[in-house]
Amino acid sequence: MDAPSVVAAADRLLERARGWHVRTDCEPVQLEGSRRCLVQRVAVEGADAPPTVIVKAHGESFETFINEAAAAEFLSSSRDLAGFGPHLSAVDSDVPLVVLEDMGAHPSVADALLGSDPDQAAAFLVQWAGTLGQLHSATLGAREAFDARRQRLAGEREVAFGDEEPAAELARGVKAICDLGVERPPGLESGR
């Protein structure tokens, strides 16, 4: 899907979901994303509309879209989870398209890790790991609710999410860390 088609789809979606419109007097800004999706910052207008939103059109991987849309919807559904990610403004499984709150431009962990300042990279990585731990703690026991959102968004489509059991996922992660030369903490001798 090309950039003008994405903007037009976002305009239709935002009209249906929020009563907002993409402003045609402002050029969308192409943002760096991944090869899997087209990411743009667009100006919007309408009652209670923010100045801009982020529009993500997913290409080849419908599973990636479903995971992102379900996660954004899940995190937007509770005050306790606010701040762990952008608020979901609208989602369209047919396009597939996600419209998210614009949280502004900030350096990323990847930028810090690829940069020339090892202290900054370490600080970003520690902050990211701490936030990830807080997110997992806040969402403990909510897997079924998340899975239900994914299934609802997938609709009738057959989607193989490729999820591993948490214990297997943890064991794989511990092994990967140990393979880097990090000593295995006590209690994780068997990968559990």
Set out the fold topology.
Blueprint: H1 3-18, E1 21-22, E2 29-31, E3 37-45, E4 52-58, H2 62-76, E5 88-92, E6 97-101, H3 109-114, H4 118-138, H5 143-154, H6 166-179
Antiparallel strand pairs: 1-3, 2-3, 3-4, 4-6, 5-6
Helix pairs in contact: 2-5
Walkthrough of the structure:
By secondary structure, the protein is α+β, with helices and mostly antiparallel strands. It has one domain: Phosphorylase Kinase, domain 1 (2-Layer Sandwich), CATH 3.30.200.20. It is about 45% helix and about 15% strand. The protein has 6 helices and 6 strands. Strands 1, 2, 3, 4, 5 and 6 form a 6-stranded antiparallel β-sheet that branches. A hairpin with a 4-residue loop joins strand 5 and strand 6. Helix 2 (about 60-75) packs across helix 5. The longest helix has 21 residues, at about 120-140. The protein starts with a helix and ends in a 13-residue tail after the last helix. The model has no long low-confidence stretch (mean pLDDT about 85).
Please summarize the sheet with the most strands.
Answer: 6 strands, antiparallel
Order of helices and strands: HEEEEHEEHHHH
In CATH, the topology is named Phosphorylase Kinase, domain 1
Residue ranges: pLDDT <50 for 5 or more in a row? none
